Amino acid sequence: LFTDEPVSLDYLSPNTTITGRETHFTLFGDQLFALERLVVGGQTLLPADFEVNNSGTQLTFTRHFDNAGVNSITAYQGAETASLIAGLNVTDAISVDTLTSNNARGADLVSDTQRNEITLKGKGLTGDIQVYFLADELGDTISDSNKVEYRNITGGIAFNTPNTLPGTVYHVEIVKPSTQEHYKVAQSLTAI
């Protein structure tokens, strides 16, 4: 089973996760049973921290990462190393610190007669996000009919409100398929 062949790394699956999420990873390669340690995103894993299949082609481990960034993976076998440069992308989990409207009557209000610009500031508001403007009391659910087009701004996103009904309370939901996130913004907006 054990040979003098060097360890090689092919790819990590999944190769993207979000900050704070405990994730089960599988590293694919060859001769993985010969690893003495593995360093992923600054975290050192020893053989007790991972499992390798009998053929030495798959290594599994579970970890969470607190900091966003692109991370390399380095395997150590004696004096030899093998690396996957940019093997793991950790993105910020979606969070919204503020949601504001540019409505002249209040930052938590939207007009039923003209469009307002809604600004969301927070983290994780990049990549393949989808933004929805919903009214629970109207029975709205996530669909193409209430998806809004947004634009990236420094520290967040902005969009213009679609038509609204006076007296109705609206909220924003954000879906990010690549990280399987679904985030409902706590702050709501009332149409006047």
Keywords:
single chain; 192 residues; mainly beta; 6-stranded mixed sheet; 5-stranded mixed sheet
Structure write-up:
- This protein is an all-beta fold and 192 residues long.
- It contains no helices and 19 strands.
- The protein has strands spanning 8-13, 16-18, 23-30, 37-40, 43-45, 51-52, 58-63, 69-77, 80-91, 95-101, 109-110, 117-123, 130-134, 147-148, 150-153, 156-160, 169-176, 181-184, 189-191.
- Strands 11, 13, 14, 17, 18 and 19 form a 6-stranded mixed beta sheet that branches. The chain has a 5-stranded mixed beta sheet with strand order 2-9-8-4-5, with no helix packed on it.
How would you concisely characterize the structure shown here?
The protein is mainly β and 192 residues long. It has strands at residues 8-13, 16-18, 23-30, 37-40, 43-45, 51-52, 58-63, 69-77, 80-91, 95-101, 109-110, 117-123, 130-134, 147-148, 150-153, 156-160, 169-176, 181-184, 189-191.
End-to-end Cα distance, whole Å, is 72 Å
List the helices and strands in order: EEEEEEEEEEEEEEEEEEE
Helix content: under 10%
Q: Which term fits the overall shape?
A: elongated
The biggest beta sheet is recorded as: 6 strands, mixed
Which residues sit in consecutive blocks of at least 5 with pLDDT less than 50? Answer: none
Strand proportion:
over 45%
Say how many strands there are: 19
Number of helices: 0
* Oligomeric state, counting identical vs distinct chains: single chain
Radius of gyration: 23 Å
Question: Could you report the average pLDDT, rounded to the nearest whole number?
Answer: 95
Structural class call reads mainly beta
